[in-house]
Amino acid sequence: MPGWRLPSFRLSAVRTTHFLPSLCLLCLGVAAVHVNDLSVFFTSLFNVLPTLILLLGSAYCAVYRRQRELFLMITVYIAYYLLGTQADFYREHGQVREDGAVVFHLVCLLLPGLFGLHGAWQKQTHLARDMLARVAVLFAVGGVALALEQRYPEVLLAWLADIRWPALHGQWMSLIQLAYPLYVGLFILLSIQNLRQSRPLHAAQLVGSLGIFWMLPKTFILPFTLNIICSQVMLMIAAAVSQEAYQMVFRDELTGLPGRRALNERLQCLGRTYVLAMTDVDHFKKFNDTHGHDVGDQVPRLVASKLSKVSGGGRANRHGMERFAWRDRTKLRGRMMTLCLVKVVRVHSRNHRAAIRRNRVPPN
How confident is the model at residue 13 (pLDDT cuts 50, 70, 90)? Predict the structure, then answer.
């Protein structure tokens, strides 16, 4: 079909640094869950930690107008509140409440669905309309689930706990069978989202879904599992918002290099001995006028990719539209880098112009 293309996935764009904060938080949370004989201070802290992180994260999201992240945290907190009520009753009385099984199965079923929905829901309209739409979805799903749980508890429990595929059921499965296809779909959805657009938020969602999947079977087994993991997942999302805010300020979005603001801050702590090399792209405006801005954007990307691959120390920055800077602490090595930069950019610019000529679409 003319004009139709398969979706492209840029595997090279996935950055492991996006996963590091979330993975560290998840590992710390799992380690804290397995700590025995907690002091009174940590016991009291874990009881208020999810609420505290939700309040701080909500304020943070409100400042940056990040509604998707806000509703991700709200979804996790609602699950924490519902399961926390059941877990507290179980620890006090040694048995679950009458509605404990239904509530637990509903949370296991709805949590991955709502988490994936808000995670993949891109903001495409006015902020107020987007907020109302998200609130409406949350209340609609919650209202239907509450109505079914109150009116048909036994029928709903039987439907949720039914083993529909006996051949696929294993003894290791601690959740209802319907939950596992949802979590597989959630992992696939979030992985594709991260492959198509690598962002700290997408990495936090993927790691957070793994933490939720690990948490649910241990809700009634290990104390404070619910409090710690839910807090860590909400903290992952808040940390991703902070990381993306930092990147917007200090990193150039087109090339991925540190921007001018980052260069100005680094220059203040380089010391007395350093070398700063400046380079620019000749005839960049003429190139844009000839080939268009979409093709012109490839030129800064090309220059940035070659500068970032130069070994021997130093760091490249994008200083302006077609201007780049190279800073190095060592004077001799910096002089050698200055001589090499022009040659590297020139050779690859010639190859790039030839590639554009070969790919030019002939006129009809």
Answer: low
**What distances in angstroms separate CA 83 from CA 88, 108, 176, 219, 223, one per listed residue?**
9, 10, 15, 8, 12
For 171-227, what is each residue's pLDDT tens digit? 788 888 899 999 999 999 999 998 888 889 999 999 999 999 999 999 988 888 999
Q: Which amino acid is at 322?
A: E
β-pairing verdict for 275-280 and 323-328 = antiparallel
Is it the case that residue 164 has pLDDT exceeding 60? Answer: yes
> For 58-88, b where at least 16 C-beta lie within 10 A, e where not — what string?
bebbeeeebbbbbbbbbbbbbbbebbbebbe
Phi-psi sector, 37: left (phi>0), alpha (psi -120 to 50), beta = left
Q: Tokens representing 292?
A: 């268009």
Q: Which of 9-18, 110-119, 184-193, 247-256 has the lowest mean pLDDT?
A: 9-18
Alpha helices for 162-277 (secondary structure H): 179-196, 200-215, 225-250, 260-267
111/101 Cα distance (integer angstroms): 15
Separation of alpha carbons 260 and 306, rounded Å: 19
Task: Say which amino acid occupies 18.
Answer: H
**How confident is the model over 338-355, as pLDDT tens digits?**
545 555 555 454 555 544
pLDDT at 337 over 70: no
Can you give the pLDDT at residue 79?
A: 95
CATH 3.30.450.40 fits 260-356, yes or no: no
Which amino acid is it at 250? F
How far is residue 79's CA from residue 208's CA, in Å, rounded to a whole number?
14
Q: What is the DSSP letter of 363?
A: P
| Percentage helix, strand, coil for the chain under 3-state DSSP, each rounded to 5 | 70, 5, 25
Taking Cα atoms as reference points, which of 191, 228, 189, 193 lies closest to residue 212? 228
Burial of 41 (0-12, 13-18, 19+ CB in 10 A): exposed
Total-model pTM: 0.77
The closest of 78, 58, 29 to 238, measured between CA atoms, is 58
What's the one-letter identity of residue 50? P
Structure-block tokens of residue 272: 């007395």
